[in-house]
Fold each of these.
Amino acid sequence: MSTTSSARNGTWRNWGGNVSARPAREVAPASVEELAAAVRRAAEDGLTVKAVGTGHSFTSIAATDGVLIRPRLLTGIRGIDREAMTVTVEAGTPLKRLNAALAREGLSLTNMGDIMEQTVSGATSTGTHGTGRESASIAAQIKGLELVTADGSVLTCSAKENPEVFAAARIGLGALGVVTAITFAVEPLFLLTAREEPMPFDRVVAEFDQLWAENEHFEFYWFPHTGNTNTKRNNRSAGPEQPVGQLAGWFEDEFLSNGVFQVAQWVGRAAPATVPAIARISSRALSARTYTDIPYKVFTSPRRVRFVEMEYAVPRAALVDTLRELKAVVDRSGLRVSFPVEVRTAPADDITLSTASGRDSAYIAVHMFRGTPYHAYFTAAERVFTAHEGRPHWGKVHTRDAEYFSRVYPRFAEFTALRDRLDPERLFQNDYLRRVLGA
């Protein structure tokens, strides 16, 4: 099974399998000029336009019954500027190819998410992030953008050129145009030492502020129905490189985290009553380990077990209360949750609709195995998150609308005004954007 979204019989489906669409036509432009022509032609034919990468969003953000643009031919590095320490890449480049290419050049992004299957434009347009005390989302590392706007013209923006577009388009939701190239800040390749170890839930939440302050990148997974978590601390290291051994890596990352975990999910889906027992075993399966490697080999990991996800950013100061409330809801609900809850952080940034826009944030992600009913759990979790003015990840399941976003994003009107200017006819509209940005 491919790790990307698929199209069969003219129907497009996302990676999580929870969104499908039937576009009128699909286009895979081989150049920016071809893409601009496809946008102009769609406008002439009265069709809307959406670009889609690997379909890793769980929302219908990329779904369209108009023209679906596949950027798979718009890939590769356009140029590296070692003086400015930037790299410019085509929008359809998968993050894994970018990471490997940069490493060969002795370069790296400063921070990244834990999955690298997505395209650079798909990941940044939805606000994909990892965890970091000082280093923010992938979009916050953007220094310049090129996009084709609704009239078919090519617009470039940066902090100096079209700064109001730059402020918004780094996380543009596909609402402002089709991104064709991105310039990222890079730095010389460095080493990270990862320290992974189990820790009781009560200890993690009691010491969270200290764990956050002492580590450049801290995250943890809590296993519902247990008092157990797995913690991960990533910090820069002088070396030497000590990667995870091949056998240990296969056993822990493939066999336990993907293979056995997949079987456990099947069992839990077939017999929900077994979930708490499975959770207790799962939460103890991974033992403590420490290893040192280049960034993308530490930050990212393979994810072969398919799931559906909801993730909210709450103010970092509200994390512990939010998490305790979520645990209480799960404990008293009778819900059977077989997937761990992931907790990460990000510093405030200056991107208009970034989930960390203007505030230090903590992320809480809830997951359910694909094919398992998730509505009851996600609805209960969302109630907890929104009580703390949570902002949902744009690419993950949520039920919020423009009215809600106008309350939790101080600069929401700034984004919608820019959209009115760049796409007055709503060429890039779809049902999802209609809901989250308003008509």
Note: The two ends are 37 Å apart (CA to CA).
Amino acid sequence: MHTDADRCVRAVQSKDARFDGWFYTAVLTTRIYCRPSCPVVPPKPENMSFYPSAAACQQEGFRACKRCRPDSSPGSPEWNQRADLVARAMRLIGDGVVDREGVPGLAARLGYSTRQVERQLLAELGAGPLALARAQRAQTARLLIETTPLPMAEIAFAAGFASIRTFNDTVREVFALAPGELRERAPKARRGASTPGALSLRLPFRAPLNPDNLFGHLIATAVPGVEEWRDGAYRRTLRLPYGHGVVALTPAPDHIACRLSLTDLRDLTIAISRCRRMLDLDADPVAVDGQLSADPLLAPLVAKAPGRRVPRTVDEAEFAVRAVLGQQVSTAAARTHAARLVTAHGEPVDDPEGGLTHLFPAPEALAALDPEALALPRSRRTTLTTLVRHLADGSLRLGVESGWQEARARLTELPGFGPWTVEVIAMRALGDPDAFLPTDLGIRRAAEELGLPHTPAALTQRAAAWRPWRAYAVQYLWATGDHPVNTIPGTPATPGPPA
């Protein structure tokens, strides 16, 4: 979008928050860069220049605006609706791969040469992987400076900087303030964290956001010991590169409140990225709902509760295992099967607030399980053990770097993986916004009640008009049913339209 100057100027002049994260406005006279919704008086159009990323702005010598804080914008929805090289690279950078494995590690995961990855990122985003990772480190550093009382040396290494000097230089260059000055400017209430490794922050999103099915689905399918709903917050354990964490997520009108307890603060960026991905916070609901509303039979559903998101996951392998456990059984039965695996093979953790006890078992831990110990039909035991074996030995990769069609093909080759299981993994684990479940019983019932075709082939043909947002259409169709996944405990259900 940043190449359409006229459209960008209109967005800036109208302070349209929908475009935050899509592009950044650099002001040539002040040498600062802003989000489109910056509250200050818009500069003259001839003094504006537009960039696709904060890193590109920083590369050109612009500093972040102190008013609109462009580093805290929602992420670009581009990376969640595409599966090409650039999109997969951006998801991996968000997951901290460059900081942990360097650019060669990033390229190896993508299956391209380092030069090819750098060239494509530079062409589309105006910055290479190192610059993009540096911008992310600066954002993490600012968050830790403003929300924790940690010493600056600890913050520097927790944010991923190799030295305190590099940390100081980067913060001054990006924010035009020394680290100590950033902390002094932060409201005292935001600096109240007293427990090392624990902090509270706000996760922004593009409005509207309907939390009912998003949190309702996570709560209704929560695995005891790994997830829970307590005091208005969805809580779960996180398996992270340097340790583990516990997150509590609470929906609010204009943000998601996030409370994180980490055993190692180096995992902060990764934890935030995975929580945002699980809640689909970088989605563009205006674009999604606009296209779905063009169908006269879907339009009333969208108008009644706009902004539905696709509930995803923080661990793709975990979700694949749970999808197999949920084949042809009720939600309660799937939770019971998963809870047994957690108790027998999960890694115990300490929850500072109590209630959560384990990490969901990694594929390596499940690869050695005795099939006879599983209270499952024999065919499903074979499906589960084959899946975890392939995940454990690396012959099947389900992660942010996965190509959606390639992953579908690999899953289809495994015994017991039919269209429903493959598509639900594509939708909720891989994040494909166009994944579709025409064979799902709930979808077929909703389609019949609404007057849509309800046979899989006919419904698939009708759903072609909903592309590339069919996964969101699934959420609206599911929401017509009377099921716990559609409501947050303690809130009234939103009734579906009359049949």
Note: DSSP finds 23 helices and eleven strands in the chain.
